[in-house]
Each structure stands twice: as C-alpha cells, then as structure tokens.
Amino acid sequence: MNESTPKPWYREPWAWMVLAPLITVVVVSTITVSIAVRFADDKVSDTYYKDSRMYHFSAEQDLRAKELGLAALVQFQPSEKSVVVELNGDLDYPKALLLTLSHPVESDLDKHIELLPALRGPLPGHFA
User: 107 CB contacts (<8 Å, ≥6 apart)?
Assistant: First the structure.
C-alpha cells in the first residue's frame, strides 16, 4: 500500500465546503451591522412628549406675535453661509437671539445659528 503524506487542511475541498458558508455569514453580518449603525433611523424622538408640547407652544407664540403685530423676515445667503433676520414691529431688540432650524427627521441635521446683536435693523448670523 502506497502511503502518501496528508495534505494540509486548507488544501482539502471538504474543509472549504464547510468553512465558506460560515465565513460568508460573518462577513455579510458585519457589513449589515455597520450599515444599520451608520444609517440608523431617528424618526421617533426620545423626547416626543416635549416636542409635542413645543409644537403647541409654538402655535401659541405665533398667535401672540400676530396679535402684537410682530413679524420676522429671514433671508439665507447659501453662497456666503449666512442668514439675516429682520424683525418688524414695536419691540425691544434682544441682546442675543438663537435661530433654530429643525430637520423634520434627522436630528443631527438641526442647525442652531446665533444671531449677532444689533442696535436696530437686521440681525446677521453665520452657519456651517
């Protein structure tokens, strides 16, 4: 009987028939988990109750501003990455004003722009 030296395990086809599906599952699972983590949906806010209250609060603020004859004109200049807010009505100008632009779905796309103080006239601000 002719004895041959055994081949290394990685040269045996049965080893690869057993390992190939397992390796494929590990690679595809890793890709799936990384995609799920990177592009996770945040459609439901953790503070949905607070957001709901803020919606009603904002509506009340809008009605109050209308009663007082207050208005604001917001102009964006995307090429300069700036925003100008003109306040109209009989009011005392605030020392500082924070303009919040909320994205309806992605909270990490929300923008908070600090408007620079002005004596009278438009309030300029810059965004990234």
Answer: 42, 45
The per-residue pLDDT for range 33-44, each reduced to its tens digit, is 999 999 887 666
Query: CA Rg, the chain, in Å?
Result: 30
Q: Please report, as a single letter, which amino acid is at residue 8.
A: P
Contact 89, 73 (CB under 8 A): no
Burial class for 97, CB neighbours closer than 10 Å (0-12, 13-18, 19+): middle
Region label for 79, one of left (φ > 0), alpha (ψ between -120 and 50) or beta (otherwise):
alpha
At 40 the three-state DSSP class reads coil
Rounded Cα distance between 111 and 99, Å, is 8
Model pLDDT for residues 43-81, shown as the tens digit of each residue: 666 666 656 655 655 677 778 888 888 888 888 888 888
The answer to whether residues 81 and 127 touch, using CB atoms and an 8 Å cutoff, is yes
Q: Which residue has the higher pLDDT, 126 or 72?
A: 72
